[in-house]
Specification:
Layout: E1 4-12, H1 16-27, E2 36-45, H2 51-58, E3 63-67, H3 73-87, E4 107-111, E5 115-117, H4 121-132, E6 137-139, E7 142-143, E8 149-151, E9 153-155, E10 160-161, E11 170-172, E12 174-175, E13 179-183, H5 184-190, H6 202-212, E14 217-219, E15 225-227, H7 243-250, H8 258-268, H9 273-294
Parallel strand pairs: 1-2, 1-4, 2-3, 6-14, 7-15
Antiparallel strand pairs: 4-13, 5-15, 6-13, 7-8, 9-10, 9-12, 11-14
Length: 295
């Protein structure tokens, strides 16, 4: 049996309770093969609520790097990936030294700090990886507190959410980046999320780039965690705001900044890119206008 060395990549920003809950859930893993070890690489983007200090105190084996608050989530994930490559990224007990030993990792796991993994999550993900082969991406579906799937693989032009199949891994075209397992072979071929995308779209772009490179993606057969606070809701959807404010929010760095959205459309939606480029902004303006009229 070949050894598995898992490099877990996480980012955090002012969500101390959720980050600590995610790390506790990661510690409470069940069914992990005896030949599997892990190391955690966390990049904190300027938290002022004591997140990095609390992680160092309560989870001393986690490798924590603090960067400025101007570093976007996508870039922080790239830094965590770089740290895993420079430090090995294997691991063992989470009470060991930060980052794990210096041996090479065999897999990376993107783990959003808002996701609390189920105890059998790693076993489910690695089991699915065995089933589909080392040349594929495995995506973990995440539920909200009410049990509905909110993050998973995506399929088709409309990016329909893919539900876990139950009996085996379900194919998908791309994926939300909350829980994603990549083998080293896949990472060597596809790389990290593209730095052109700062917050959103980087995970979808990564999935489509993987597909173009001949790398299939699958959703693990059962959900792997819960998003404790529920899914993130774009600020542009807030009821009652005016058109100008709604457009300011939708074009902000955390939603759909026009330059990044245009790059995404050009790469993955041609020849419909010009239409799709303007459609979310037009819908946002129309929604805000209608909301004001109804109010």
């Amino acid at each position: 049996m070949h050894s598995i060395h898992l490099a877990v990549l996480m980012t955090s920003h002012n969500r101390r309770a959720r980050t600590l809950a995610a790390l506790r859930a990661l510690e409470d893993r069940r069914g992990l093969p005896a030949h599997a070890t892990l190391g955690v690489h966390l990049v904190d983007t300027g938290s002022t609520d004591g997140t990095p200090e609390a992680v160092r105190l309560l989870h001393p084996a986690v490798e924590v790097m603090s960067v400025g608050p101007d570093v976007p989530r996508n870039q922080a994930l790239r830094i965590a990936s770089r740290n895993s490559r420079s430090g090995g990224g294997g691991g063992g007990s989470l009470s060991g030294r930060p980052g794990g030993p210096s041996h090479r990792w065999t897999h990376q796991l993107w783990l959003d700090d808002g996701v609390e993994l189920f105890p059998d999550a790693l076993a489910v993900l690695l089991g699915a990886a065995d089933a589909v082969g080392a040349g594929a991406v495995v995506v973990g579906a995440v539920r909200d507190p009410d049990g509905a799937t909110v993050y998973s693989g995506r399929r088709g032009r409309s990016l329909t959410l893919v539900e876990p199949g139950g009996e085996g891994p379900e194919p998908c075209d791309t994926y939300d980046g909350r829980v994603v397992l990549l083998s080293r072979a896949v990472h060597d071929l596809v790389g990290d999320p593209d730095k052109v995308f700062r917050h959103r779209m980087g995970d979808y772009d990564h999935g489509f780039r993987a597909r173009r490179a001949g790398v299939p993606a699958f959703v693990a057969p059962s959900p792997v965690g819960v998003c404790a606070g529920g899914p993130d809701v774009p600020g542009s959807l807030e009821p009652g705001i005016g058109v100008r404010e709604a457009l300011r929010r939708v074009t902000s760095g955390t939603e759909l900044p026009p330059r990044q959205w245009w790059v995404y459309c050009l790469r993955h939606t041609w020849p419909w890119a010009p239409v799709l480029m303007v459609s979310p902004y037009a819908r946002t303006a129309a929604r805000a206008t209608l909301g004001r009229w109804r109010a």
